[in-house]
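Hey, I'm writing a tutorial for new members on how sequence and structure tokens pair up, and I'd like a real worked example in the thread rather than a made-up one. If someone can provide the structure for the chain below, I'll link this post from the tutorial.
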Amino acid sequence: MGAKGAVAGLGMTQMGKVYGRSAEDFADEAVTKACLDAGLRLSDVDGLLVNAGAMRGVNLRLSKRLGLGDLRLAADVQAFGSSAGVMVQTACLAIAAGAAETVACVFADNPLSEGVSTGAKYAGKADELTGLGDMPVAVGLRGALAGYAMAARRHMATYGTTSLDLAEVAVSARSWAELSPHAQMRKPMSVDDHQSSRMISDPFHLFDCCLVSNGAIAVIVTSVERARDLAQPLVTIEGMGQSHPDYPMDRRSRFGLTTGALESGRQAYQMAGVTPEDIDLAELYDCFTFTTLVSAEDYGFCEKGAGGDFFRSGATGPGGRLPINTGGGHLSGYYMWGMTPLSEAVMQVRGQAGDRQVERHDLALVSGNGGTFDDHSTLILGDAA
């Protein structure tokens, strides 16, 4: 079908419990590193797309700090965890239209502070609700954790999914994190370790929940023709898709049963001219173990309701037929919203993933998920035009 663009540069800061730096500090470093990685100068960048995380500490003022003048494309992009895929798709469309040539896409956040609980920081950013909007909060349904737990419970009631199935997802992610120098959590984990971890929001144990990290990641998107002449192995963008279900809280809704992976995946497969069987590895957004499981089903990697058996089979871990979240994902690697799966996919497709490098890496699927299954993006990356 023909590639739609290329990821020519990748810039990553130190991530995790990194204190004393603003989100703009992190973003500056990530974009600068992404340009160096590509063999470009900052002055070569004519497009800037910025995704601020939960603390909303970075915006388009970043262009002034970077010294980027006369930009042809600039926007704050907020589709939550699906934003990385949305930014890359926007960059590709702009480049194809001749509206830009070299676009930097960056995510940065700093929710962690010494001596302050993460929960307290996130609570400080909660939206104010009034009238009937307060009703879910009044009965305890507050924030992403409770919403995803409710979604998981519906899937369990419908398909028989269990906590042991979710444990297999966590163990698979940790087995990859053990091989990654970027991962925050590298201690081996068993199903028993998962089951004995404290309950956070039924059915989620501690190890069903993602990490929280300070840091930033940026990518440089350009045309395939230009990327061929730059410093890094070619990483093409073969397929793209978005879906924004924004499920209503109604019993007729498919909330918890399907996700935006279903439609955005269909778009990306069609654009790339491939099927799920052609995918060599997948980097799936995993704010919770359930998100990974239900996304794998919706992308067609296994039958609906068979996610637990799929992960239990060993197919997704090191040496498996379909490696998933090869850097540990958000669960054990690092939490940079949609840039977590995108960055790992770029390293894998380039063949630069070190001890965790998979043998087959011609096609990598990357997912992003935002809100509580409200927004979804899909990218398919390749190693040849």
